[in-house]
Specification:
- The protein is α/β, with parallel strands linked by helices.
- It has one domain (18-31, 41-285): Glycoside hydrolase/deacetylase (TIM Barrel), CATH 3.20.20.
- Helices cover 43% and strands 16% of the residues.
- It has helices at residues 26-31, 40-64, 74-79, 81-89, 110-127, 143-151, 188-191, 206-222, 233-236, 239-255, 263-275; strands at residues 14-21, 69-72, 93-96, 133-134, 156-157, 167-171, 174-178, 193-194, 199-200, 226-231, 258-260, 283-285.
- The chain binds zinc ion (ZN).
- Zinc ion binds at residues 21, 23, 97, 101, 137.
């Protein structure tokens, strides 16, 4: 059912990644800049990520011996530098996720170029190197951002929904890898309830919400694909939910032929099998349309 499955290392049936976007309280500051500092409840909901959930998540990864990817707005890297240091010391990847979670469709042109570069500076200063991967805030990547990524030597981006497995993006500026996302593997639909930023989802029970993810995994595993979650510490890192994820991870690693790795390693592998001629990826040429599509 997958036309051209990727040959994974060591005969693994499926490459897997649980990717966390650590947005913390950036979301309330970017959506309500005038009075966010007086809104203690959403600040505390966001800060639960760095303060409580991230240490819990890192403990699970350490126990199971896996390395993963975290996408973090640069403002949060600065505000929670000690957390970033622990993530990097444990061997995980930190990717670019905007400056303060600004939406690239809204913050575009010079303002986007400025925010993008300001974030690069924070990565270089606090993480010690430029990021290799990017995920757009609210998945809203634009042709401008794709070209900024190519210009800045990124190896991949992870915001588009055009395939089940990694594929290539090409523009007239060059190319990079796409590590595709989709809403069925994102924790906003089952778990986010956040009126201030326009999300009023009916919160599902932990096993109910997570069951949808495990069904996504079963399909990818059966077809030799790629399984990725796009989740948030303040949602999926909550006690009852993470307890179930921890149990699922332990069981899956014990009983299945899976390869859990940070996205930069998964992409490096796809690049390597492509270069060697063992794999022929699908390519999307961007932009899809040169201008407004009018009837
Ligand atoms: Zn985000």
């Amino acid at each position: 059912m997958i036309q051209n499955p990727i040959p994974w290392p060591n005969g693994a049936k499926c490459a897997c990644a649980i990717t966390f976007d650590i947005d913390a309280d950036s979301l309330i500051h970017v959506s309500r800049p005038k009075d966010s500092h007086r809104r203690l409840y959403p600040i505390s909901m966001g800060r639960y990520g760095p303060d409580v959930a991230v240490p819990r998540i890192l403990e699970t990864y350490k126990k199971l011996g896996i390395k993963q990817s975290f996408f973090v707005p640069a403002w949060c890297i600065d505000a929670y530098a000690a957390m970033i240091e622990t993530i990097l010391t444990d061997g995980h990847e930190v990717g670019h996720h905007g400056y303060i979670h600004e939406d690239p469709v809204v913050t575009h042109g010079d303002a986007q170029a400025e925010a993008f570069e300001k974030a690069m500076e924070v990565h270089r200063r606090i993480c010690g190197h430029a990021p290799r991967g990017y995920r757009a805030p609210v998945y809203n990547i634009t042709p401008q951002v794709v070209d900024l990524l190519i210009e800045n030597g990124f190896s991949y981006e992870s915001s588009l929904m055009g395939d089940d497995i990694p594929y290539r993006l090409k523009t007239d500026q060059g190319q990079l890898w796409e590590v595709p996302v989709h809403w069925g593997c994102d924790d906003w639909p089952p778990f986010a309830h956040y009126e201030e930023i326009g999300y009023m989802m009916p919160v599902r029970g932990p096993s109910d919400g997570l069951r949808a993810f495990w069904e996504e995994f079963d399909a990818q595993y059966e077809h030799g694909g790629f399984f990725m979650l796009i989740v948030h510490p303040f949602l999926t890192g909550r006690l009852a939910r993470w307890r179930l994820v921890d149990q699922w991870l332990e069981k899956t690693l014990e009983t299945k032929d899976v390869w859990f790795a940070p996205l930069e390693e998964i992409v490096a592998h796809v690049e390597q099998v492509t270069e060697s001629g063992a794999y022929n990826p699908r390519v999307d040429t961007l932009p899809y349309y040169p201008g407004p599509v009018t009837p």
